[in-house]
Specification:
Helix content: under 10%
Strand order of the largest sheet: 1-2-3-8
Number of helices: 0
Radius of gyration: 12 Å
Shape: globular
Number of strands: 10
Oligomer: single chain
Order of helices and strands: EEEEEEEEEE
Length: about 100
């Protein structure tokens, strides 16, 4: 799927896991996985900016908490699913069966 060494601090990285679009983000030394689709508009969050453990949608500026998926900036009002992440060596493993 993705190597930990592929991720940069405060940056988003889009991948597909079991057919699901996933946005990975490294923030504060921790890897987060969130559905790669803004709940306000059907656009990829992985094209947005990461800062202070939140991601901002590039289209309308909605912001989401990377840990909970909760919207923290309008116009989004619905959360985005988040997924458990496990690091195994340099491999980033995401379980999209849980959210």
């Amino acid at each position: 799927m993705c190597a930990l060494s592929d991720l940069s601090e405060e940056a988003a990285f889009g991948v597909e896991v079991d057919g699901q679009p996933v946005c990975l983000a490294l923030a504060g030394g921790q890897v987060y996985a969130i559905r790669d689709e803004c709940s306000h508009a059907d656009v990829m969050l992985s094209h947005g900016e990461v800062e202070n453990r939140k991601i901002e949608c590039w289209l309308h500026g909605s912001q989401f908490d990377l840990e909970t998926g909760e919207p923290i900036g309008l116009p989004a009002t619905e959360p985005v699913p988040v997924y458990p992440v496990k690091i195994d060596g340099d491999d980033v493993l995401v379980d999209v069966g849980q959210s």
